[in-house]
Structures are given as structure tokens and as C-alpha cells.
């Protein structure tokens, strides 16, 4: 019962993260399921090749049949034979603002998901558990919308130039000063697209002769940016500080591979919240390691800005650390601010350098003015500068919703991954047929969820990912939980062998969240 | 009422079988093919068990009882 302090007292609050192991029977049955689908996939491919069945997917032209085959790898096999069969759970067209409730156009398929037709009906008021609307700023009425409409009538919608040429509006300058003040850094710069912020700025910061240490489960934008830069990339295990320290030690001791010269720069790439796992980075330990081995830290707060921390300033505030310790703080405006675009914050010399040398600043169009105004209004709301306490109430509502939802799901017996405080909740499904079944059954009950399978996750660990929002009221969450429980019983999804005893009062072990009894 | 419960339960068991073996996502003709193959294999397993297991169990029982209880019988 003694509260043991690990890691030299770096953590000021308990860090509860759990990834329950896959039950053996479930793993075996998942492989059986994939085996059956693979056999039928081969059968269908055989029939398509011998023209017994009409081929509806993309193939090479007759003249190209002797060239290197384009569609024979596993990804395309998976796409034709497995993804097509359950494709109706993705790319669903919505026709209203993606707030807490959303309207969706109904569509049917008469040839097993190869083509879709709209019935013309609109399914109204679906509880939206899939949008990254963490603070509920995706609204069509309210202060943000009015301010954006005013700016739209003043500036128009298009910018028609890049930042370096004629696209640098006074709105952009205002936004960047505000972002720098929000984050607690010296200076910041905003870009038109969050993905492009990562992929176009990492090549500007590192090059050949530098080392990038990137987490196993980093987002595609970080991976693309790292590969485009031409630096050497080494991967450490997800959120594993021993693995990271070993890589750092090897890098310092051995230097570059052939010449043994010291590395020009070592950059550690981590994310604030990993969206597929729901885990939060161990930031105090990463910063301690960074200082000990004199390397640089690039923190991608795409999902955690606005969603973590007592006043919504992100993962740095959540752990109570100094923002000046993180060298490059990157984030996006897409998730918590209800807009689009990304930003990078840091020291003034860094941002001035990026203004000249970043590909995105030189070649990409800058942010559209109404979008900028939405960001400015929502950021002022979160900081409390618009004179109301709406922002603070939203941040607290999100934290409450997160805790409540996660606790209830764990009590029901589902396997939930990730940290207790992250608003991204992955619920494990494992079997491929259940991916399609879960999506369809939840839509029948008027709840919209996002289900994820291969290749975004490992092949047996498919999941349903819930994104909580401050716009969800407790009634909506209760309805959703009731339906999730019903579908869980129908599909037998309650795999967890650790039964949670409700309302525990014991102090937890600091790094894992094991439940023993029942 | 009871018949309805039993029928619902059996339908639920069939649904679980469809989900676990992934025949839920297959087209109807593929499902029929898969069910035929499964039922055939299962019937063969049951038939083999019915024909061979009692005989093998009896032979094994006689073999082991001959080892342990066989010595006193042979001296008489």
C-alpha cells in the first residue's frame, strides 16, 4: 500500500497506462478468421483471373500484362478481398457540422460494396464519437462562427499566395503572437496544413549527418518528414525510456556508422497523445534524457493541445514542466480548435530560421482568413481572454467526460488501451468480421464510431476508436455507453479478464494499472 | 415464449459462429460453400470419433490392466 516513487520523483501525478495483453483464444480465432478470408481471397482472385467472375477492381491494361505487376502485393490483396467487403464503415458522407451530433447521408450497396448509391434519406442526430472535436468548437452558431463570418466578409476566403510573397496577412501575425503567448514560448509560426507542417519542416531542421530517434508508433507525417530529410533514423520501442536511453548511449559512444564522427544533431521525435493507442508520452523522462545526452526534442501535440492540462495548454502543462525545455513544439489547429492548419513554436532564432527555410512557408499557400479568425477566437476562449469562463468549463468537462467514459467501459469488461487521462479511447475488437459488424450495429443504433483495422494497426489488433468531446453531455455518454454495452454483449466483445472493482480508493502503482481480484 | 427464447439463443450462437469464422463478411454463395465444407468436415470428425474412439479406449484399458494386474493372473 506504500506509494513508491519511481523515476527519481519526476512525475508529480500518477501515470496510469495499461495495454492489456491479447487473450490467447482470441488471438488464435483471429488468425483462423484471417485464414478463412485469405483462402476465399485466393479463390476470388483465381476466378477473376480466369474470367469466371467480372473484375471490378483496378487492373493493368492488356499491353502492360508483361511488365512488373502492380497489384500483386499483400496490400492490394488485402484491399480487394478484405477491405472491400466491409468498406461501408468508412468514408461515410456527413451533411452537417461534426459537433456532438451529426447528420449522415444514407447509402446502400447492391454489389457488395463495390459501388454505393444514395437512398436520398438523411439519418439525423447521430451521436458523434469519431470526430476530433475535443473542446466542442465545431459549431455553426456562437462567438467563433460570428467572428469568422465577419472576417470572411472583410477578407474573403482565398489568400492566393504563399507566406513569403503576398500571403502574409496581419491576421497571421496576430495569430502567431497569440499562439506564442498561449504556449509560453518566444515565437511561433502557423502553416496551412497540419500534415505539411511535420513533413515539410523536419527536412528544414535536420539533414544528412544528423540522427533522428523516432517512436515506433509515430504518425505518417513525422515518418515522411524524417525520411525526406535524409538523416539516419533509429526507432525506439513505444514509450519505452530504456530503449531510448540505449539508443542515445549508442549514438554518443559510436557516432556515425562508418566514419565514427560525432552526430551533427540528435533529434527525438515524440507525440503528445498517440491517436491509435491513446497513450501519453512520458515527457518528464524524455526531457531528463534529452538534457543528459544534449539532444533536441520535437514534440508533436496534434491531439494533446487543448485536450490535456488544467487550462488546456497541452501535455507540457499536464506534467507541470517548463515549455522552454521542449525545443520544437508542434501542434495542429484541426483537433481542439475546430479549424485547420498547424503551428510550430520555439525560440525566436528557430522560428526566424523556419520563416526563410521551411518548404511550407516558401511554397504552400497560407491559412485562409476565416479559419485564422476561428483559431484566434477559440484560443482566446480557452485562455479566458474573451471575458467568460466558457473555455475553462469546456476543458474541465472534457476531463470529466474522459474519466467517466473510460471508467465505465473498463467496468463493463472491454479491453481499453492507453492512459487514463487521454480523450482518445481505443476499444479492442481483434476479429475482422467484428470490425464491420461493430460499425454497422452502432450505426443502426444511431451512434457513429470509427473502426480501424490493418494497415493503420497491427493485423490482429483492430479496434474501435472513440474520441470524446466537451460537447458530449452526460446523457449522450450514458446513451452511447448503453448501446456499446448492448453491442458488446451481442458481438461478445467483453474480453477483459481483469474485472475492475468500481470506485477504487487505494493509491496506484505509478506506472502500471493492474487490477487483480474478481 | 420459451420456444422463442431458445430460437433467439440458437440464432445468437449461429451469429457468433459467423463472426468468429469471418463468414459474416462473405457473399451468400461463398457462405454456402463454407458452411458445406465445415459441416462435412465436422460430420467426418464425429463419425471417426464414433467408430474409433470406443475401440481404442477399450484396447488401451486392456493393455494397461494387463501390465498392472496381469502378473498375479499368470502365476495361477
The value of Rg of chain B in angstroms is 23 Å
What best-fitting shape of chain B do the alpha-carbon axes yield?
elongated
Shape of chain A: globular
Succession of helices and strands of chain B: HH
Please tell me the CATH architecture of the largest domain in chain A by its name. Answer: 3-Layer(aba) Sandwich
Organism (chain A): Eurystomus gularis
InterPro entries (chain A): Aminotrans_II_pyridoxalP_BS (IPR001917), Aminotransferase_I/II_large (IPR004839), AON_synthase_class-II (IPR050087), PyrdxlP-dep_Trfase (IPR015424), PyrdxlP-dep_Trfase_major (IPR015421), PyrdxlP-dep_Trfase_small (IPR015422)
EC number (chain A): 2.3.1.50
Membrane topology (chain A): Single-pass membrane protein
Describe this structure in words.
Chain A has 518 residues and is of the alpha/beta class. In chain A, 38% of the residues lie in helices and 15% in strands. In chain A, the strands form five sheets. Chain A has a seven-stranded mixed β-sheet with strand order 4-12-11-10-7-5-6, sandwiched between helices. Chain A has a three-stranded mixed β-sheet with strand order 2-3-15. In chain A, strands 14-17-16 form a three-stranded antiparallel β-sheet, with helices on one face. Chain A is globular. Chain B has one domain (3-67). By secondary structure, chain B is an all-alpha fold. Chain B has two helices and no strands. In chain B, 9% of the residues are buried. Chain B is elongated and about 60 Å long. Chain B has helices spanning 2-20, 28-75. Chain B starts with a helix and ends with a helix. The chains are: A alpha/beta (518), B mainly alpha (76). Chains A and B meet through helix 1 and helix 14 of A and helix 1 of B.
Amino acid at each position: 500500500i506504500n506509494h513508491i516513487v519511481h523515476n527519481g520523483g519526476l512525475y508529480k501525478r500518477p501515470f496510469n497506462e495499461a495495454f492489456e495483453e491479447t487473450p490467447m483464444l482470441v488471438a488464435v480465432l483471429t488468425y483462423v478468421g484471417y485464414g478463412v478470408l485469405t483462402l476465399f481471397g485466393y479463390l476470388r482472385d483465381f476466378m477473376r483471373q480466369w474470367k469466371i467472375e467480372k473484375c471490378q477492381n483496378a487492373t493493368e491494361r492488356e499491353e502492360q500484362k508483361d511488365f512488373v505487376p502492380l497489384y500483386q502485393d499483400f496490400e492490394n490483396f488485402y484491399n480487394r478481398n478484405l477491405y472491400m467487403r466491409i468498406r461501408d464503415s468508412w468514408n461515410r458522407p456527413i451533411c452537417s457540422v461534426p459537433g456532438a451530433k451529426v447528420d449522415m447521408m444514407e447509402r446502400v450497396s447492391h454489389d457488395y460494396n463495390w459501388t454505393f448509391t444514395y437512398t436520398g434519406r438523411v439519418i439525423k442526430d447521430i451521436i458523434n464519437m469519431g470526430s476530433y472535436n475535443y473542446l466542442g468548437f465545431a459549431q455553426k452558431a456562437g462567438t467563433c462562427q460570428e467572428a469568422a463570418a465577419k472576417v470572411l466578409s472583410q477578407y474573403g476566403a482565398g489568400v492566393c499566395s504563399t507566406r513569403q510573397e503576398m500571403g502574409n496577412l496581419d491576421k497571421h501575425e496576430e495569430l502567431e503572437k497569440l499562439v506564442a503567448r498561449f504556449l509560453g514560448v518566444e515565437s511561433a509560426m502557423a502553416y496551412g496544413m497540419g500534415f505539411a507542417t511535420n513533413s515539410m519542416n523536419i527536412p528544414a531542421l535536420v539533414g544528412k549527418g544528423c540522427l533522428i530517434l523516432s517512436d515506433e508508433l509515430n504518425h505518417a507525417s513525422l515518418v515522411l518528414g524524417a525520411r525526406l530529410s535524409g538523416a539516419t533514423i533509429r526507432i525506439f520501442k513505444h514509450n519505452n525510456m530504456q530503449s531510448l536511453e540505449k539508443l542515445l548511449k549508442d549514438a554518443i559512444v559510436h557516432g556515425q556508422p562508418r566514419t565514427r564522427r560525432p552526430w551533427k544533431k540528435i533529434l527525438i521525435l515524440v507525440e503528445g497523445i498517440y491517436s491509435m493507442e491513446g497513450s501519453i508520452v512520458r515527457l518528464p523522462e524524455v526531457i531528463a534524457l534529452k538534457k543528459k545526452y544534449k539532444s533536441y526534442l520535437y514534440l508533436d501535440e496534434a491531439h494533446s493541445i487543448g485536450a490535456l492540462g488544467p487550462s488546456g495548454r497541452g501535455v507540457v502543462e499536464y506534467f507541470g514542466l517548463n515549455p522552454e525545455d521542449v525545443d520544437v513544439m508542434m501542434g495542429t489547429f484541426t483537433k481542439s480548435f475546430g479549424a485547420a492548419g498547424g503551428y510550430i513554436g520555439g525560440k525566436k532564432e528557430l522560428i526566424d530560421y523556419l520563416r526563410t527555410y521551411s518548404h511550407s512557408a516558401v511554397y504552400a499557400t497560407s491559412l485562409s482568413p476565416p479559419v485564422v479568425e476561428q483559431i484566434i477566437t477559440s484560443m482566446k476562449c480557452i485562455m479566458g481572454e474573451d471575458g467568460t469562463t466558457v473555455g475553462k468549463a469546456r476543458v474541465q468537462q472534457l476531463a470529466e467526460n474522459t474519466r467517466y467514459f473510460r471508467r465505465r467501459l473498463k467496468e463493463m469488461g472491454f479491453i481499453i488501451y492507453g492512459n487514463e487521462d487521454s480523450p482518445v479511447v481505443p476499444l479492442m475488437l481483434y476479429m475482422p468480421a467484428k470490425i464491420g459488424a461493430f460499425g454497422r450495429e452502432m450505426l443502426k443504433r444511431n451512434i457513429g464510431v470509427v473502426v480501424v483495422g490493418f494497415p493503420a494497426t497491427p493485423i490482429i489488433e483492430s479496434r474501435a476508436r472513440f474520441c470524446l468531446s466537451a460537447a458530449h453531455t452526460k446523457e449522450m455518454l450514458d446513451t452511447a455507453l448503453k448501446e456499446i454495452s448492448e453491442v458488446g454483449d451481442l458481438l461478445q466483445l467483453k474480453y477483459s479478464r481483469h474485472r475492475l472493482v468500481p470506485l477504487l480508493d487505494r493509491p496506484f502503482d505509478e506506472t502500471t494499472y493492474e487490477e487483480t481480484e474478481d | 415464449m420459451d420456444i422463442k427464447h431458445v430460437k433467439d439463443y440458437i440464432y445468437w450462437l449461429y451469429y457468433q459462429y459467423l463472426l468468429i469464422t469471418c463468414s459474416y463478411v462473405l457473399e451468400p454463395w461463398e457462405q454456402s460453400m463454407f458452411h458445406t465444407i465445415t459441416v462435412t468436415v465436422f460430420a467426418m470428425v464425429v463419425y471417426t470419433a464414433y467408430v474409433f474412439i470406443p475401440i481404442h479406449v477399450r484396447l488401451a484399458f486392456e493393455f494397461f490392466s494387463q501390465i498392472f494386474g496381469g502378473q498375479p493372473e499368470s502365476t495361477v
